[in-house]
Amino acid sequence: MFENLLHKESSKMLDFLDAILVPPNNFRQQVLLSLKDIFGYQRSSFFLIDDYGNMVDPVTINIDDFYCNVYSQHYFKIDALHPWNLNQNFILKRRNIIKTSDIIPDSKFKTTEYYNDFLSKQNIYHEIAVFLLDGSKLIGVIGLFRSSKEKGFSINEINSLQKVSTHVSSALASELLLDDTQCKKEILETFSKQTPTGLIIFDKSLKVHFLNEKAKEVCEDVMQGEKTQTPQQFIKSLLAEKTNWQSGFKKTILSTSLTHYTIRILPAIHYYFHFKELFMVCIQPDIISTKKQIPGEVTVSEDTPLTKRERDILELLMKGMKNKEIADALFLSVHTVKTHMQNIFKKMDVTNRMSLYHKMNLLNNKIM
User: Which of these ranges, 189-203, 252-266, 295-309, 317-331, has the smallest mean pLDDT?
Assistant: First the structure.
């Protein structure tokens, strides 16, 4: 007989755990529906607990919304099972399942305003609170209710609810973590779209986890002409030969459009990646040094080992023009411009545009 009851109880628990595997937005409603269909709790509520200990955002089964509203406005103040009216240690000691009768004798309970003006009007007499904890932090409360004509909550029911609460608490903590992570992600993305600063978040292995559109633009500008133009390659080139770099690293670079950028590396903290040490690259353009301040005429000396066409391309390159712009100006294809660029790099003994800029600047300074 005992084995049959144990098997039946285990079967219910497995059915319950399977039933609550639903999307986050349906989780709390499904928990209450499963408590009703599998365990027979016909009336229930599921509140979340905010950072101030308030019971908020209720979901209910067979409880009128009107009573939820008046409870939140007034009756929570005199509810013996509200977290504000209970000691946190008391909740933990009582195995987080507490009946009204654990707090106040039945004879006194029947004389209270909470019972006479609130519960009795809903035909409720028996009330039990299932406190959901994430460690020692209270994150939610499930309320179960019965009329005076129904039996109170038995020891066996409380033991079953204890097992249920363990699983629901764990699932709820995960759902809240996902919600919080998504919220912070949306805030970061919204901010990053609006800021003129390029942002790149990467880890110690230089793997990029996030970057905004401005950072993409800068990477393309700085890495133009390189075989690989990925943000990860940008980070590697930025920290080239800096094996002992750390937070606080600062560097100024000149892009292919002749814009100066100030680069700073700061620590980036996000608990979603708590197992990684993250860093954030902040890329700030120097508004004093832009295309508009570049001289209109840049002449490449005929003494260089370049052909006439290569000198034409280099002059436009030194004005900060990109491959497509150079191609349009000289009525060439982008592919042809890229081929000329590789020849220019080879003849000038450089590997990329940045090196070419610096070399040409040195040559021009010598001439001057």
Answer: 295-309
The neighbouring-strand residues paired with 48 are 56, 140
Buried b (16+ CB within 10 A) or exposed e, 334-363: eebbeebbeebbeebebebbbebbeebeee
Are residues 251 and 238 in contact, defined by beta-carbon separation less than 8 angstroms? yes
How many beta carbons lie within 10 A of that of residue 253, not counting itself? 16
DSSP string across 99-140: EHHHHS-HHHHTTSHHIIIIIGGGT--EEEEEEEEETTEEEE
pLDDT tens for 50-82 read 888 888 889 999 999 999 889 988 999 999 888
What amino acid occupies position 156?
A: N
Cβ contacts of 343 within 8 Å, gap of 6 or more: 310
Query: In angstroms, rounded to a whole number, what is the distance separating the alpha carbons of residues 88 and 100?
Result: 16
Assess whether pLDDT exceeds 70 at residue 266.
Answer: yes
**Backbone conformation region of residue 40, classed left if phi is above 0, alpha if psi is from -120 to 50, else beta:** left
pLDDT (tens digit per residue) in 81-127:
888 888 766 665 666 899 998 889 989 999 999 999 999 999 999 99
Block residue for tokens 């080992």? 305
272 DSSP 8-state letter: G
Query: Cβ of 327: how many Cβ atoms within 10 Å?
Result: 19
Half-sphere exposure of 352 (CA within 13 A, CB side): 15
State the Cα–Cα distance between residues 269 and 124, nearest whole angstrom: 48
Can you tell me the distance from the alpha carbon of 348 to that of 304, in angstroms, rounded to the nearest whole number? 8
How far lies 46's CA from each of 8, 29, 243, 251, 258, in Å?
26, 8, 53, 53, 60
Point out the least confidently predicted range of 95-104, 168-177, 271-280, 319-328.
271-280
Give this prediction's pTM: 0.54
Phi, psi values for residue 269, rounded to 5°? -115, 125
Pairing of strands 97-99, 126-134: antiparallel
